[in-house]
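Give me C-alpha cells for this 233-residue protein.
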Amino acid sequence: MHIVKNYTGDVMNFEMAADLARGEGIDVEAVVIDDDVAVQDSLYTAGRRGVGTTVLAEKICGAAAEDKQSLQQVADLCRKVNANGRSMGMALTSCIVPSAGKPTFELGDDEMEIGIGIHGEPGRERRRLAPASEVVESLATPVIDDIPFEEGDEVLAFVNSMGGTPTIELYVVYNELYKLLEGRGIKITRNLIGAYITSLEMAGVSITLLKLDDELTRLWDAPVQTPGLRWGV
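Here you go.
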C-alpha cells in the first residue's frame, strides 16, 4: 500500500511505481493524504497538500498490517484516517532548499508565515509575531472548524516541529492547544510531540488533530519499534 502526500510530483511517481509493481503481479492500493486546511491548490499540488496526518496514518495502518488485515482493509482504514485528520502549520523562517541555495521566501525578524507547507511553500498570510496562544488559535481554529471537530470528540493531538523548533517550545504550543480544545469540550486522549515531518531547518510548528474512535485508538496504542516511534515493546 502506498500512502502518498498530495503533491503533484509525489502522486505522479507513486503512480509510476504502482504500474511497475502491477506489471510484476503485485497488488497495489494507493491512498492520497490531503489534510492541510491552509490552502487549496498550492504551488506544488492540485487540491489540499498532504502533511501531518501522513505520520499518523503510517503508524495506524502499520499496526493494522501487523494484525494481518487485508490490503483492502488497510487502505480503507487509511482513507478513514485521512477523512478524520486535519493540519495547519506556521513558520518563523524559511528553509533553504539545497538546489536553490537561498531561502524560499523572506520573512522579517518580526514576522511569521501562517499556513506554510512542508516543502517550504509560503502560506496563506503573513502576520506580525504574536504570543503562543494567538499562534495556536490561528492554526487550530481552521483545523477544528473544517471537519468540524465538536464538543465531546476525542482526538489525537500532534504538535510537530518544522525542523528548527526545539522541543521545549513545542510543549508551550501543546499547552496552549490543550487549553483551547478543553474550552471547546474536545478531549485530547492521545498526543505526539516532536520533529516528525519537517522542512529542513525551518523554524516553525504544525498542529494536526485526528478524531479518534475505539479502532483508531487501539491501533495507535499497538506496540511499535521504529527509529521515529517506539512504545509497548
